[in-house]
Structures are given as C-alpha cells and as structure tokens.
Amino acid sequence: MINQFFDHREIVLKKTPFGNIYYDVEIEKEWDVQFDITKAKELLLEVKMVCDKYKLPFFLIYGTALGAYRDKNFIFHDYDIDLGIYKKDTTILQKVLEELVQSYGYKVYKISELEESVGIVKNHIPIEFGIFSKIGRYYTYDNMKVNRIKAPFIESLEPITFLGESFLVPNPIEEYLSFQYGKSWRVEIKDFYNPYQRYISRPIARILSVFFSPQRSKSLADIVAESIKKVYQRIKN
Q: Could you read off the pLDDT of 71-116 as tens digits, one per residue?
C-alpha cells in the first residue's frame, strides 16, 4: 500500500507510540483544524457506502464507538473517525481506498510501516482504519501494547443504529467501553482541554498502557496528574 498510495510524493517516516508511520508532509497539514461533526457524519456514511459496495466488514472503535453508542453523535472534542477491519480483509480495503481516492476526493495521508493502519482525509476530517490481527488474548494493530482490544470484543461484533444506519461495534459494547475508558464511560468529559488532562494525564496513560489495561492506566495517570497539579499550585502560591 505504501508504494501504491505514496508513489512520487513527499513522505516522512515518524516514530510514534504506535510504531513507525509514513506521513504525507503536505496532506497531513490539511486536517489540522477543528473537527466538524456535520462533515464527519457525511463522510462516515460515504465511506460506509463504499465499504458496503465491496462487502468490507468494518466496525466502529475507540471514541467513534463511544460517541455513537453513548451520545448518538460524534464526541464534541474528537479529532478523527476510528474504524477497524480484520487483517484478512486488507485486499478488500485496498479496493475501497482506491475508489475513495479516485472517485470521492479522499487522500491517503498516513500508512504505518507495518501497513496495519491507514489514514485518509477529506474536508479536513481524518479517518483511520486500524487493521486488526489476533495476538494471544488480544486483537491489535501496529503496537500491541498500545492499540489492543480483548479478543472476545472483536470476535463477535454487534450492530447498533447510528445516523440512521446499522454499524458494527465491539460486543458487548458496554463491557468494551468499560474496558477502554473505565466504568465512568457514561459520563462525558467536560474538561477535555484541561491542560493537566491533555498534557499530563493522557500522555502518562498511554505509557502506562504498555503495562496495564486502558482503564487501570487512566486511573493511575489521573492520580499522577492531580498530584502534579497540587504541587504546582503550592509552588505558585
């Protein structure tokens, strides 16, 4: 896929917590704007239409699944659309991407070095396909210690209604969301852009996810962030 979609274009290889990823230098800049929920809805339905045409089974994951199930909407502070497919369907995904690029105006802006995730963008809305394969008790892509979901959630998907259409999500969805976001997943995060959350808690949680579940990692990271906040306030006062 790297040669197919990045031929004769300026790309750069970046090292990230998710593994090494090739980025198109110019296209990457196109989505560095506020996430437009109205556009995101239109694009998700458009991508679904093409996936259905080629009979590519895909499922909503991460924040996209959370918003679709809890809010019946995209999360207001989200920045992309997260979709998953099985690795055995990679060939079908390539056909889907070809049509999206050639007929619908999408651009491929990133492909992981292992070709286990692909990012496309249109109208400043990035959409990421995670290409999941099973390793032990988990389904994962790119970096098992970060992007991993317990196998039972992915092996038996369930449909939910979102935007008037049927979409697949991990099953059972509420247990998956508890695994991914903790038991408080039903509560919307109002202070997402709180600097302590954005620059301390969430980065620490990503590091801790190498050793713990997403739920445990978030809890420990929040404790660390709160401690740092208290120390800073004492010094400031």
A: 999 998 788 999 999 999 999 999 999 999 999 999 998 888 777 8
Closest CA to 127 of 166, 185, 69, 83: 83
Task: Note the helical H segments in 119-185.
Answer: 151-155, 173-181
Length of the chain: 237
The better pLDDT of the pair 32, 64 is held by 64
Question: Are residues 111 and 2 in contact, defined by beta-carbon separation less than 8 angstroms?
Answer: yes
- Torsions phi, psi for 178 (to 5 deg): -65, -40
pTM of the model: 0.79
Q: Are 191 and 197 in contact (CB under 8 A)?
A: yes
d(CA 76, CA 182): 19
Nearest to 197 by CA among 185, 206, 209: 206
Q: Which residues of 158-179 are buried (b: 16+ CB within 10 A; e: fewer)?
A: eebebbeeebbbbbebeebbbb
Strand pairing report for 59-60 and 81-86: antiparallel
Distance CA 112, CA 118 (A): 7
